[in-house]
Amino acid sequence: MADRRRRNIVLRLPRAVRERVQWLLFAADDGSVAADSARSVDRIPESHQERGLDPLWDFLFCASSLLLAIFFGAALGNVVRGVPLDASGYFFEPLWINFRLGDETGILDWYTILVGVLAMLALMMHGGLWVQMKTSGAVNGRAGKLAGRAWWGVVALTALVTALTFQIHRK
Question: Can you give the three-state secondary structure of 17-84, one letter per residue?
Answer without folding.
Answer: HHHHHHHHHHHHHHHHHHHHHHHHCCCCCHHHHCCCCHHHHHHHHHHHHHHHHHHHHHHHHHHHHCCC
